[in-house]
Structures are given as C-alpha cells and as structure tokens.
Specification:
The chain is α/β, with parallel strands linked by helices and 495 residues long. Helix content is 24%, strand content 21%. It has twelve helices and 22 strands. Helix 10 runs parallel beside helix 12 and helix 11 packs across helix 12. The protein is elongated.
Length: 495
C-alpha cells in the first residue's frame, strides 16, 4: 500500500530565536526584481543607489533587524521573528515542505513563511509595510540540504511481501472504524522502555507526538538508538493511535546492550503513564526446574506494583523465550499472528506461547498482534536510525536465512517484527480505548481486547513450545488477534 504524503503542510512548530532573510532594495531602473517572470540576463538594472541602500539600512535596523552582508542589490539580514513581523506587518509561521534530499531520498524540511492579508502567496516572500523604506520585497531564506545521509520519511519498496506503517497495521488490526469515529488516542501517554528513539523524519512527517526521550544508562544519548529497535517498534503505536503521546526511555548502553531495563521500567513507572509497553524480556529453561528465583520474584513485585498503581502494562510474549515478565498477573502478554496478503490468519511460529508453570490460570499470550514468521520475521517495514544494528543486519543474509530484506544498510528502514511489534500495537489499542472511555482499569482494558479478539485456529506457535492454534482460547494465540474498533465499542457498551 503506497503512502500518500502531502508536498507541503502548515505546522505549529516553535519559531527560531533568529531568522535569516534577504531584502531587495529599490532598483535604479525602478523595476522590481520581484516583477520579473524569469531571471535577468544582467543584474545591473537592479542595482540600488548608495542613497537608497543607506535609507534601507536605517529602516531595517530601526525594526531590530541585523545587516549580515551587503550587495549592490540588497542585504542579507537576520533577526528575531518579531522583527520580520514588524517589518512586513504579517505573521511568521512554519511550513513543512517535502524535499528531494541526500542520496535520492525525500524528507520534510521546515520552512518559514510570512502570512497576512497583504502578503504574497509564494512561500517565504514578504511585502514590507511601507514603500518609504526603499525596499522592494523580502525573502526568508529557504533551507538548503547538506550532502549527508538522511533517511526518507517514506518507506522503500522491496520485493518480498510485507506490511507498512501506518496503514497496513491499522487495517490489519481493525483500527480504521475507530479512527473514523474520532478515537485516535488523543492525550494518552504511552511510555516505552527500549533501545532509544531516533528523530526519524517518518514521525515528523506524520505529526506524531514524541516527547523528549530519557535515558537511564550513564554516558548514553537519549536521542540515539544504536540498535534501531525502539525507534522502529514505536511506529506500531502510532499506526493504531496516531494522536497519542510517546514517552521513550532508553535502557541500552553505547553498544546497544539492554543493561538498564529495570531502571527504565522504574523511571517510566515513576511518571505514572496510562500505558507502559515493553518489547523485551529474559530467558530461562523451559520447562523450568523450579519456582521463580529471588531475582524474578523481586522484579515481578515491581511489575505488580505498576499494575496496582493503575498503569496498563504490556509485555511481549517473547520470540521463543521463556521469561517472567509476560506471566505476571495483571500484565497483558502480547503474542503473534501472521496475516497474509489475502488476509488469511495463522499463529506465528516466531512467537512464544505456553501455559504458565508459575502462575495459576495464566496463559502466555493473552492476545496477539501482527508478527512475521520464522526464521527472521521480516514482516513490517519500520523506520530506524541510519546505519544502526538492525538497518545493517536486516539488509544482509544471516546464517539461518540467505535472504535479506531488500533495503540498504544505511537507509534508515528495515523489515522486522516479532512480538516486539505486537506489544506496542496492543499498547496503541489500549490508548484508543482510553481516549473513548477514560478511566478504565487494566482489567477492563484487557477484557475489552480479549472478548473481541478474532479467534485463530490455524498454525502453531514457536517450535520450542509447539502448541497449536485451536478453536477458542488456546496456548498458541491466547484469545486471538486483537480488533481495535471492536475493543473500543465493547468498552463503550460495557463499562
């Protein structure tokens, strides 16, 4: 499904403290350069007199504008937006324009414009308020592009079957009806503990609200994502709940190792978000040789405390792993269902599924999101930091799969999924429900999703557990594939 991205759109970004511009001073020939329909063969006719240059300089400086440089035609200027507004009797606004950028890619670049009743329609062109200033017109500098690698906001097209964000995920999980009814996750904060959050243009292009990332590992940058996992999987949240607010928390070290997961979880819990999604976990022997050890018990207590504090906690079921997190009562465990291009459904053989040996009446997963198949689950095209671990790894053959994902190793896009994708998808559905029905408990959110899930009775979960999907509740897919719109409607009807 091809993304349709507008060429230009008005935004509400904060204005810079200082702007760059250019003014053309009245020409000797009395014909403005702005009246021409094509570039002149010579600039001489548009030179200004020394007297007019002096008068224009004085008028500009009186408005708080600084003269950066001077030519025989005009001035390069700089100053605060207020000075430009005073000069033109207009308002400075931000506009995003899609530009062909580095490496043949496209991305949105923020421009500045002056708008008002008497202002020209051309982007960045302003008309000064008085002809006595000896100024023919004003231009706000348009951004140029440095020739460095930068990812496109638009996913690349590759040969193998895959899903794209946001549209395919929204359709596959039944979110479109909820969106049309006005439920978009507005105002709901979702915290995500992961590998970091790179400012990929994909998020800006779609106007997604990503709060400044936090980090719990000393010496790491909150704006970097050396793995790409957190950046990519977070796109699943916005595919379902485009108006939610994402609070990313980086818990990886400089090498991308997830060494601060508990610290990240506690930091997220401290902020009391509505939803806390986690696409990670440990691994141990299955079946276990005994009860949970002291580490798991203490860690489970922190998770239970988050649930008791009113936070809806989601953990991925794992991709063949056996771990304490998705088993904790009150947590929603996210498993995997694979959807074909013909909308046929089966249990993902990449996702874990099993009855908990530690907690009575707990089956992992509770419900499922969209997840690819073994061996690599290359299924959803997701935005990542260019040149990160996943960008490189997925673009190359692996020991268990000779096929790559069809992308480049530094293009900022990669095909991957896993139950790491299912967890944020389900977090997004929880945000939709809460935007429609605020104040619901974790138990009510879980009920809305489990009662409306699409039953899956084909396929098996990961071979380590090898449970079949069956009619009704099963060990492979739990209650089945979540349906966002039906879950929202259930909450409206029952709570």
């Amino acid at each position: 499904m091809k993304s349709i991205v507008p060429y230009q759109k008005l935004t509400q970004q904060a204005l810079p403290k200082s702007m760059q511009g250019y003014v053309s001073v009245t020409s000797k020939g009395k014909k403005s350069i702005f009246s021409r329909k094509s570039p002149p063969k010579s600039a001489k006719a548009f030179h200004a007199t020394k007297t007019d240059l002096k008068e224009a300089r004085s008028a500009l400086e009186s408005t708080g504008v600084q003269i950066v440089a001077e030519s025989r035609l005009g001035f390069a200027i700089a100053g605060p937006p207020q000075a430009f507004e005073e000069l033109c009797d207009g308002k400075v606004v931000t506009v995003d324009r899609l530009m062909h950028a580095e490496g043949g890619r496209e991305r949105y670049v923020t421009h500045l414009d002056i708008v008002g009743d008497k202002q020209p329609s051309m982007l960045g062109h302003g008309k000064v308020k008085s002809s006595k200033m000896k100024i023919e017109g004003l231009l706000i500098e348009r951004p140029r592009l440095l020739q460095s690698i930068f990812p496109s906001p638009i996913p690349p097209f590759v040969d193998q079957f895959h899903l794209r964000v946001p549209d395919d995920i929204a359709v596959g999980l039944g979110a479109i009806k909820a969106h049309r009814n006005g439920f978009m996750g507005e105002g709901i904060i979702v915290s995500m503990v992961d590998s970091g959050q790179y400012a990929h243009p994909f998020f800006a292009a779609h106007h997604y609200d990503v709060l400044p990332a936090k980090t719990v590992v000393t010496g790491t940058s909150s704006t970097k994502d050396p793995v790409g996992h957190g950046t990519g999987e977070s796109a699943n949240i916005f595919a379902i709940a485009p108006e939610t607010k994402l609070q990313p928390i980086r818990a990886t070290d400089e090498n991308g190792n997830l060494v601060g997961a508990i610290g990240g979880f506690l930091l997220a819990k401290q902020d009391s978000p509505a939803i806390l999604t986690n696409s990670w976990g440990g691994d141990g022997p299955y079946p276990p040789t005994g009860p949970p050890d002291t580490y798991d018990i203490a860690w489970a207590a922190e998770i239970i405390d988050a649930v008791e504090n009113g936070i809806f906690v989601v953990f991925s079921a794992s991709n063949g792993g056996f771990t304490i997190e998705p088993q904790v009562p009150g947590v929603l465990a996210a498993g995997g269902v694979y959807m074909t291009g013909d909308l046929e459904m089966q249990a993902s053989n990449y996702a874990s599924g099993y009855p908990s040996p530690w907690f009575e009446n707990v089956i992992v997963p509770d419900v499922c999101g969209l997840v690819g198949l073994s061996p690599r689950a290359q299924y959803i095209m997701l935005p990542v930091q260019p040149g990160c671990e996943l960008d490189i790894f997925e673009s190359q053959p692996s020991p268990n799969d000779p096929n790559d994902d069809g992308t480049m190793a530094n293009d900022g896009w990669a095909l991957f999924s896993g139950t790491s994708a299912a967890a944020p998808q389900i977090a997004g559905i929880a945000a939709l429900i809460l935007s429609a029905k605020p104040g619901l408990s974790s138990a009510q959110l879980t009920e809305a999703m489990t009662k409306t899930a699409v039953d899956i009775h084909t396929g098996r979960c990961h071979p380590r557990f090898n449970y079949p999907a069956e009619i009704g509740h099963d060990n492979a897919t739990g209650h089945g594939l979540v349906d966002a719109s039906d879950a929202v409607q259930y909450a409206l009807d029952h709570f």
